[in-house]
Amino acid sequence: MEFSARQKLIIDIVKENEPITGDNIAAKLNLTKPTLRNDLSLLTMTGVLDARPKVGYIYSGQTIEPLLFEKLYTKKVDDIMIPAVFIKQDTSLKEAITDLFMYDVGSLYVVNEGKRLVGLLSRKDLLRSVLTNSEESIPVAVVMSRMPNIVTITPDKTILSAGSKLMQQQIDSLPVVEKGTNDKIIGKITKTRIMNHFIEEGIKVKAHNE
Predict the structure, then answer these.
(1) Does 181 lie in the same domain as 141?
(2) 147 and 81 share one domain
(3) What does each of the 210 residues of the chain score in pLDDT, given as a tens digit?
């Protein structure tokens, strides 16, 4: 993989100053940390840098072979996305909890009568609602996260882009929406699905080399 000029400069800065925080890297480049977020995510996900909590970035020196990188990161979300579980806005908390465990998922997607995404209900949302509300019959619309405050992705984006969003937002899944819309949901992509993809490809490469 060929890194950009800025990414190469970041690698040099980390080599010379490790461990170094993202803020200090940004300061040396006279840029803001959000500007570097995608660069740092890519360098971390490819194994070139290692991000250590409360310590900063260090240079790991690992690289990924170009063909393996192609298989792991540049595939489209559409290639590995999985079906989403939908519920209606008037679904009760009790019913939502049942669906969550029945389908063994981390999030439920709330849609309106037109099948458009209006909200998201995660395990954390349900746990919080159960702890604060004794009434399990209240509708999920009362406690769900609402649009437009839900981060989405389109199927034409790369797996690397999806992984970067999941890391930046510190969430477990992204609803995949039809390109050109922000609420016509056609599936989802999760941290677990991406990890499974990496493992599947790694097994293929290992089998090929044996």
Answers:
(1) yes
(2) yes
(3) 567 889 889 999 999 999 999 999 999 999 998 888 888 887 887 778 888 888 899 998 765 555 566 667 778 999 999 999 999 999 998 899 899 889 989 899 999 988 899 999 988 888 777 777 657 788 888 888 898 889 999 999 999 889 888 888 888 899 999 999 889 999 999 988 988 888 887 777 666 555
Burial class from Cβ neighbours inside 10 Å (0-12, 13-18, 19+) for residue 33 reads middle
207 occurs within a structural domain:
no
Domain-embedded: residue 204: no
Query: Whole-prediction pTM value?
Result: 0.66
Query: For residue 193, what are the domain limits?
Result: 77-197
Range list of β-strands (E), the chain: 49-52, 56-59, 86-88, 107-111, 117-122, 145-146, 173-177, 185-190
